Amino acid sequence: MNILIVDDEQHVREAIKLLIDWKQLGIKQIFEADNGDSAIELLGRIAPEIVITDMRMPNRDGVELLAWMKENGRKSKSIVISGYDDFHLVRSSMKYGGQDYLLKPIDPEQLMEALQKVKLSWEQEDHARKLDQQRNMEINQIKPVYRDKLFSTLISETAVSGNASVPADLREEFKLERVTASQVIILSTEMLEPQISRKFSGNRDLLTFCLINVANEILRHNNVGFAFRYWNSEHEIILLLWDRLAQWETILARITDGIEQTIHGRFHYGVGQAMPFPGGLSASYQAGRMALKQRNLLTGSSYIHSQESGRKAGVHSLSIASYEERFRLAVWSGKEKDLEAAVDSFLEAARMLPSVSLEQVELWRFEYEAMLSRWNQELAVKQVRDEPLEPPSGLPLSVLLDEEGKLSLELCRRELINGLTAYAALTGAGGNKEHSVMRDIAKYMEQHYNREVTLQDISERFYLSREYISRRFKQEMGENVFDYLGRIRVEKAKLLLQNPNLKIAQIAEMVGYDDDKYFSKVFKKFEGQSPNQYRKM
């Protein structure tokens, strides 16, 4: 704690300093001022817990100092020491927050008692302030989640009953008493552009937080609406408008511009109709959701979708289930040409479709997973396996998009061929094909050695578990995955080291290492010498 002594007589200030055992009180520093003006100047730089002041001083006196402290919200505790037993002065000191009024000459015991009292008062109030701050921090952390939950519940309740009452908390905070109509716009984070997916890989919560913040910067201005995470879907952010509904296109354009400037990417929006508030919330939400599901993934001309804006894509008759027998025969044959021919026959029909919607792709994914599940059940009946079967996962939507965010049938082809090939290897269909898949993994690393390659990346690309890849790769290739990758990188680095114009750090980056020290460590492991030593040799 710190203390400020204010008195125009130096000998009084010195006496106060000598009369008290400040160390026992826990006082670290003592500041001095000879009048109220000097004290105010000091208070602008320091924040003492205790102020001891005289009442009669030149320029600004003690009463004026205490009044200034109260008006400016100073939390310091004050003790008045005065040579005047004057009721007016006593009343003024109490009015402006003085804790005690002591008369000169100073009694050491009275002063010590007064100091202990104000010290205890300060500590109690400081503890209470900290508790309030902690509560406020906790409330501020919980409040956004609480609001998201209330708004999400509103949409869900209107879906069940067709009506819902607006919670008093929301009505008061957002001034919703006079709102009669609203409109739901869904911002979808399900199928991200590849650059956004890479940037926020493993941190989707951060992406959601950024998007909501940008949207609310615009929506909360003039209280036209609110953006929140929809609790019933991990890939949806709701932009709820309740004012200026006729200007929704202008408002949404400002939001999309703000997001593009902040995150450098674009997202798809499903626009529902303006409906009565709050009873029409669910209907507006469902319209926006359907518009997203029915958008044409083969074109990237628009990111804003509504059911009124054009043709309904719907779900076409093309089905993976119709090609199941051909896929099955190709997998069981174990021949690469048969697999490619089966996949190409399906995609040839897909290319004839006028459009492919998200709804269509979700159906394909469901059919693909169901097909593999049926095959697993058949295998389980026909043979007893000595290790549990870990089937490849379904078609991940994110890897089916090109750099413009459009559905790529070529990427679909690659993923289907890789997935079915991996399934054949994993199950032993058509003979033992693990060695072929491990060679494909090795080839993939040879082609992508200069990028960050993780076991998870390989697992997702080849639809095999990380444990299975680690075990099988070492069996087939004679060393583990990362030693194999390290050897490829070192061989590439040896060629680059022959160029004297390239720095070691540059070479490290060119062969896939961000840290040149770690690159040197790996290089020495394989070559028995550092990159510099190799270059000199």
From TrEMBL:
Protein origin, superkingdom: Bacteria
Single GO MF annotation: DNA binding
Domain Response regulatory: 2-119
One Pfam family linked to the record: Response_reg
Residues bearing the modification 4-aspartylphosphate: 54
Keyword line: DNA-binding, Phosphoprotein, Transcription, Transcription regulation
Alphabetized InterPro entries for the sequence: CheY-like_superfamily (IPR011006), Homeodomain-like_sf (IPR009057), HTH_AraC (IPR018060), HTH_AraC-typ_CS (IPR018062), Sig_transdc_resp-reg_receiver (IPR001789), Tscrpt_reg_AraC-type_HTH (IPR020449)
Domain HTH araC/xylS-type: 439-537
Keyword Aminoacyl-tRNA synthetase: no
Name of the protein in its database record: DNA-binding response regulator
